[in-house]
Design goal:
The chain is α/β, with parallel strands linked by helices. It is built from 10 helices and 15 strands.
């Protein structure tokens, strides 16, 4: 493990600048800006809106009316050297979490009202490490949804252990988590105007053929992981998120994932009847997109979304600032070319803190 980590450090630090494309290829929308996408079928005024606020890495705040879901946010940014070395301790930075949340959402964090769920796609440190602090300090009534590994890792935090009922481990996975062959369990918001379903997913290698911390938590932890390699990947999932009308029918569908997926994990469950609906917005991952065949091309061909939001595109090994650079080793020009195949003005990349409003 030490040899692998050393090789990774040498390769990334010597080659990443040359191989990383420019951020300008993704045309990122600046922080404190709001872009509007008119999703109505006609030219008539739309009746509803949903707002997407990018929190960085895999984090989004998705708000419709008085309620919202948050996908697992990441505000602590340990340096690459600390992450690649399996002996280097890392931890959630409470000052960074507080500063970034207020910078993105504004004091006194009023936008966090109404957030009923935190959706976790997988359990690597850059997706899960800040969740205990966010849940304890800012989202005290929200339920955390993730797989069994996610829950077992979170049990290492005393506050999470004391309120274990706040964590839904999507268990038993065979009946709760959907696949391309069967429908899983819908989970409804308190008002029943929003629902979501976990869908089996996967995770691209991080370096060469190496997937970082490719492990599962086999029992509840008694403390949180000390190093980045202790935050086990677990069992990755994506999410289908629906906004519902008064009759409980989906009127706007969002597909979310926080890692580039293998070709077998690009198909929605076999929805039928009233549950059938095309994907309006797909949130896809930039990081490691070239480590799996034809990502996100195959995914978007299968989903046929009307619009795409690009996530996990900025370098998360340091604080972002106003003009983030792309995640290291990302060929931004090739990624933009693949997204451009959707058609003109069909995708967007937001700087953390940026917002997109979809009118529907």
């Amino acid at each position: 493990m030490k040899g692998i980590a050393a090789a990774v450090i040498v390769f990334v630090t010597t080659g990443c600048i040359r191989l990383t494309g420019p951020a300008s290829a993704l045309h990122p929308v600046p922080r404190d800006s709001t872009t509007t996408w008119h999703a109505c079928e006609s030219e008539a005024p739309c009746g509803s809106i949903v707002q997407f606020t990018y929190l960085g890495v895999g984090g989004f705040l998705i708000r419709a009316g008085d309620e919202a879901v948050m996908t697992a946010p990441s505000f602590s940014h340990p340096a690459l050297m600390a992450v690649a070395t399996p002996l280097w301790p890392i931890h959630s930075d409470s000052a960074a979490v507080d500063r970034e949340l207020r910078r993105y959402l504004g004091a006194p964090l009023a936008p966090l009202e109404g957030v009923h769920s935190i959706l976790v796609g997988h359990s690597h440190y850059d997706h899960l490490m800040d969740v205990p602090l966010v849940a304890r300090r800012y989202l005290t009534d929200a339920t955390i949804y993730g797989t069994l590994t996610t829950k077992r890792i979170l049990m290492g935090d005393a506050s999470m252990r004391a309120r274990a009922s706040r964590i839904d481990s999507l268990f038993p996975a065979d009946s709760v988590v959907a696949t391309a062959w069967h429908v899983g369990r819908w989970i409804y918001s308190p008002s029943r105007r929003m629902r979501f379903m976990a869908v089996r997913s996967s995770h691209a290698p991080n370096w060469w053929f190496i997937t970082m911390a490719r492990c599962h938590a086999k029992r509840d932890r008694t403390s949180l992981p000390r190093t980045a390699w202790g935050w086990c990947l677990g069992e990755p999932v994506s999410y289908v998120i629906d906004l519902l009308d008064a009759r409980g029918r989906p009127v706007f569908r969002i597909f979310y994932q926080d890692a580039a997926t293998q070709p077998l994990d690009v198909v929605l469950p076999p929805f039928t009847g009233a549950d059938e609906r095309a994907v309006d917005v797909a949130i896809v991952c930039a990081g490691n997109f070239k480590k799996v065949p034809d990502y996100p091309t195959l995914l978007l061909a299968a989903l046929r979304p009307r619009f795409v939001i690009l996530g996990h595109w900025e370098d998360f090994f340091h604080d972002q600032g106003e003009s983030p650079s792309p995640v290291r080793l990302t060929d931004t020009k090739e990624l933009a070319a693949r997204l451009d195949r959707l058609g003109p003005q069909r995708w967007i990349a937001l700087v953390p803190g940026g917002k997109m409003i979809a009118e529907y």
